[in-house]
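Onboarding guide, step 5: your first structure request.
Type a short instruction followed by the sequence, for example:

Predict the 3D structure of this protein.
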Amino acid sequence: MRGAVLDGDITPFIGVYDVFSAGMAGRHFESLFLSGFGFAASYYGLPDVGFITWTDIVSYVQRIRTVLPAHHLLVDIDDGYTDPEVACHVVSVLEAAGASGVVLEDQKRPRRCGHFDGKQIMELDEYLAKLRQVLATRREMFVVARTDSSDPADIELRVLAFVEAGADAVLVDGLTSLDTVRRLSSKAGRPFCFNQIAGGKSPACTLTELREAGVKLVIYSTPCLFSAQAAIDDALVELKKADGSLSGSRIGVKDCTAVLSENLARRDTGRVS
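The system replies with structure tokens like these:
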């Protein structure tokens, strides 16, 4: 993953919410984002406000890595699930499970989606201590340091401190424009990451616009989850209208089995990125 990000032009990471959506996304993209928002919705049926446990995330990564042995997997680990010791343990176990990278944020608990108001931010020294320990623990894993600060001066202070600590990339979540990226990407001297989520605070940008602003990694947090929500709702409404007939279904058992069979074939090759 490090080579792909550093040597590439701009790398999109597609957010998935379970193993099936990962298999589907893996047909089209080489880099996937294991979204906390999507996982909380899929696994717990709850909003992403801190319910996720690190053991569930590790199991999730293991299942996806089993069927996608060659894709880059960037994992949302919130604040590392409390204290630095836990964060370091999680990073170590995730790396052993095949995760390519993690995103570590500076939100306090109870956390909120980065595109909602009311977020609480750690003191910078507290976050930096955790980040440095995580960086010292990982072997080859790519670490994205994320801030949820909204104050321009504080954002710059934190981004530059993350770089000084040795983060592989930096992310400022919930930005309302690309101005901050343009201002800081050259100063940072590290790959700049941008998070896009439909209906969120950030503008919907093309890869060309993001590239020109200085972005190297683009996270698309929830396209699979939101598309599934729309498709499920539409299909069930149509089932009611059709008096229970499935004749209008676009996907059949053979189409679904084809995706599952591809997963099985990739699993059996055992090729790891």
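Each response can be followed by summary notes, for example: The chain has a mean pLDDT of 92.
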